[in-house]
Structures are given as C-alpha cells and as structure tokens.
Amino acid sequence: MAQSVVTVRLNGQPYQMGCGPGEEAHIEALAKEVDAIITQLKAEAGQLGDTRLLAMAALILADQKHTVQNGASAAPPTASNGAAQSSLDSEGEAMLAAQLQAMTDKLRALKQQLETTS
C-alpha cells in the first residue's frame, strides 16, 4: 500500500509526515490543534525552543486525553430526556471551564519555573 506524505507546520517549522492515502486532511487538522496549543504556550511563556514547546504540547494533549477518559467514565451513559441532556451540557461546559483554568494554572507555573531557572 502506498503511503502519502503531508507537510504540516508546527511553530512555523515544516514537518513531513507519512500517512495513509486519504488521511492527509486529518493529519493537517491534528497539526493545527497542536500548533494552537504551541501558540498558547508561547503567549504564556515566550519562545522556549521547538523541543520544549513540542514536549509541553504533548503533555497538555495527554492531560486532556486523560481528563476526557476519566470524565467520560464517570458520566451517565445516556440522557433519556431534554432536561437531562441540558444538564449534561451544563456539566460539560463546567468541566471544560475547569480544564481550561487548570491548563492556564499549569502554564503559569511552568512559566514561573522557567523564569527562575533561566
């Protein structure tokens, strides 16, 4: 099976990625998500170097995945009526807001650590 190659940009740098035929758009969308996290990190902590930025972005993504997996296991499996669905939406928004606040706090702590070690 032939492999496709797509070029994505992370922190302004091009990276060529191999993928299956037809997966190019998906890889590009994933790269845009990672680049958005890197952009947010740079806004909070400044330019830290590609390796450190990519490592921090990977940790943030892993943390998000962990939170979603743990939150999903605690959530009710289905909503049987509109009121229950509305409640789930509100709970989801509250959970997302809490995650964003936690990420902001982590970024500020990392920035402070980096400033004290520099």
Molecular structure report:
- With 118 residues, the protein is mainly α.
- It has one domain.
- 70% of the residues lie in helices and 12% in strands.
- The chain contains three helices and two strands.
- It has helices at 24-45, 50-74, 82-117, and strands at 4-10, 13-19.
- A two-stranded antiparallel sheet has the order 1-2.
- Helix 1 (24-45) crosses helix 2 (50-74).
Keyword list:
single chain, 118 residues, mainly alpha, two-stranded antiparallel ribbon, 2 strands, flat
Could you list the spans in which at least 5 consecutive residues all have pLDDT below 50?
74-88
What amount of the residues lies in strands?
5-15%
Question: Averaged pLDDT, please?
Answer: 77
Q: What structural class do the secondary elements suggest?
A: mainly alpha
Secondary-structure element order, as H and E? Answer: EEHHH
Quickly count the helices: 3
Q: Kindly, what is the distance between the CA atoms of the first and last residues, rounded to a whole number of angstroms?
A: 48 Å
Strand order, largest beta sheet: 1-2
Taking all Cα atoms into account, the compactness measure Rg is 18 Å
> What does the overall shape look like?
flat
**Count of folded domains:** 1
Largest sheet: 2 strands, antiparallel
> How many strand elements?
2
What helical percentage do the residues reach?
over 70%
